Amino acid sequence: MRRIYGIGETIYDILFRNRQPVAAVPGGSVFNGLISLGRTGLDCTFITDIGADRVGDYILSFMRENGINTDYVSCYPGKKTAVSLAFLDDNNDASYSFYKDYPNSRLDFEMPPIQKNDIVVFGAYFALNPVLRPKVGPFLEYAKSQGAVMYYDLNFRSGHSHEVESLKDTFRQNFMLADIVRGSHEDLINLFGHDDAQEIYNKQISPYCKLFIRTMGPEGVTVIDKGIEYGFDSIRIEPVSTIGAGDNFNAGIVYGLIRENITGQNIDSMDDETWSRLVGYGIAFGTETCLNLSNHVSHDFAEKYRL
After folding, report:
1. Which of 6, 101, 163, 223 has an alpha carbon 20 to 30 Å from 54's alpha carbon atom?
2. Strand partners, 180
């Protein structure tokens, strides 16, 4: 079976509604999707770092219980695992406060044995952070050289908008490494100042990567494949929480790449029917996540998609 590798931040999310805590769950943008994929029985490995504390121990156990290989997790003695406070508004969308205690030197790991057509998921500020880039960049380049299918989720928050200019070269490198780029309409506004998918694709994405996905929450999904645009409707629901929705949309797409046997050899020849199935998986995974407070799809849902 093809392996899935993720590289990203691990964090402990404490969710608040009406100023009261309502849930506490392990999280992180790539982490959330990998947990859901692990629950479907897929072979997943996560590269991340945590503190050597009680929260870190719990998160390690949580990953292993959900089928995630933790051989490439860096644990820092004397440091605390990152925590976020997520405040849900009336629409159950979240705003965040982050509390982090990282050492000066991070991500001490050996390159994993990536094989041709394995899938690598990366994104968010973790894939841009100048402190981490000397470790993250070589890993991504290595994975690309091994023939992995590279999935890049922008996940670019407004708190980093002031860094756009200084990060332009890193964004460009990530676009060049990616086989698929995905961004929410909020990501695109934070990064480019607007969310016109076709204009962003033409000017920013297509010189480097030919496959682009824009997600717009309840307003649907746009896919641009070598200049051809496809549109897909979302499933209308009353969300319990939207935390992890985009992360699990990514998980659904990655799941579809494996289920539909999309590899580096045929990813450039997908038609509208193939995209309809892939986006259907993405919407199903993302929608399921909005129906609970856990950041991931439920075990019952995952069992229905087990390969």
Report:
1. 6
2. 151
